């Protein structure tokens, strides 16, 4: 699986929000500066995240964005799904040819689909709260 910039940036921004005071909002510019991501790019991601209910916006002097749900209810899968990340396992093998007998599928298709399903179910078990807890205890969740 290859995680694109879009997925990595969305995860980093959501972790930044999750580490903020519960119920407190953060301006997009502050998140962008802390994570070294352009405000314009984050704006596009937050449009998708807000539409999905993963973040909420607050107007006014103390306005900004906050999580739409508790950090223990937002999984990595939720975030990646919203920004359009897939779970396919990329295989680069010019030698393997599609077989006409199998309807255009290669011999290893089932294997790669199984690997993608495993990755997807793994990401469904990791919440923002777990990553933050692991960080506090000195563990590093190996996804970012």
Task: Give keywords.
single chain; 144 residues; mainly alpha; Arc Repressor Mutant, subunit A; two-stranded antiparallel ribbon; 6 helices; globular
Query: How many beta-strand elements?
Result: 2
The CATH topology name reads Arc Repressor Mutant, subunit A
Give the structural class. mainly alpha
Proportion in β-strands = 5-15%
Just give the CATH class: Mainly Alpha
Topology:
Elements: H1 5-18, H2 28-35, H3 39-51, E1 55-58, E2 64-67, H4 76-82, H5 109-123, H6 128-136
Antiparallel strand pairs: 1-2
Helix pairs in contact: 1-2
Structure description:
It contains 6 helices and 2 strands; from the N terminus they run H-H-H-E-E-H-H-H. The protein is mostly helical and 144 residues long. The protein has one domain (5-88, 99-136): Orthogonal Bundle (Arc Repressor Mutant, subunit A), CATH 1.10.10.10. A two-stranded antiparallel sheet has the order 1-2. Helix 1 (5-18) crosses helix 2 (28-35). The longest helix has 15 residues, at 109-123. It starts with a helix and ends in an 8-residue tail after the last helix.
Please provide a brief summary of the model:
This protein is mainly alpha-helical and 144 residues long. The protein has 6 helices and 2 strands, in the order αααββααα.
